[in-house]
Amino acid sequence: MTVNQPPQFEKPELNFESESTVQKLARKTKDSPLMVAGLSSFFIIAGYGIYKFRNRGKLSASNYLMQLRVTAQGAVITCLTVGVLKSLYDRFNRKSE
Fold this sequence. Notes:
Layout: H1 21-31, H2 33-51, H3 61-96
């Protein structure tokens, strides 16, 4: 009588070396460049908004910050949407070829 043994699986190679921040950013840029562009646009808009905070005119501080947040989020969402549309186009374009 034979006993059913589970199939033998190969052990995956695990790399326990830690990545530096620069290496991780380089890998992410290569994998999804529009995500990095979205994050960069967010920080640029946020920095510009902080710089212009003193000259906001008669607008209240909370209203100004709310508009700034919506603008920064809109830039990120736009970059991510373009990335998703590009990946969908690439996927369906490859299937037709």
